[in-house]
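Hi everyone, sorry if this is the wrong subforum. Our group has a chain we'd like a structural model of before ordering constructs, and none of us has done structure prediction before. Sequence below.
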Amino acid sequence: MESSDLCEIIEDLVDKAGLLLVDLTEKHVGRSHMIRLLVDRPGRINIAECAGLSRMIKDSIDGDIPLLDYRLEVSSPGIGRFLTSEVDWIRSVGRKLSVKMVDSDFIDWLEEYSDGCLKFRNDRNVIAENILSAVEVLD
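Answer:
Right subforum, don't worry. Here is the predicted structure as tokens:
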């Protein structure tokens, strides 16, 4: 099975689980494969959802290519990861973010994301491409 086929199967399963794929790494380590996924969803993903997705992926891989030697890791991205992509903004709705921009820094709750625009409390609207860095912070 080609690496791109494996990634496509995994992406489809993540989508069917109603989750967002934040990062997918698949590489050969000797004769085996290392498959590492970071997944999330708006609100927050829990351990049971990661475990359920892991079982779905394992069942699919074992059924399609039973002789593949692989190691699978499914987890959430964590709090300190920099937010840079559209998937990051979507999954961060409802979370408190620390945002750095050229002319200001602020910490606020992200209320909505749509078409490259982030809406924070107090009617603060920010275009995503104007953000220098952003991370989730604990309340």
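For your construct planning: The beta strands are 20-29, 32-40, 70-75, 96-101, 105-114, 117-120, 124-127, 131-136. Helices lie at 3-16, 47-64, 86-91.
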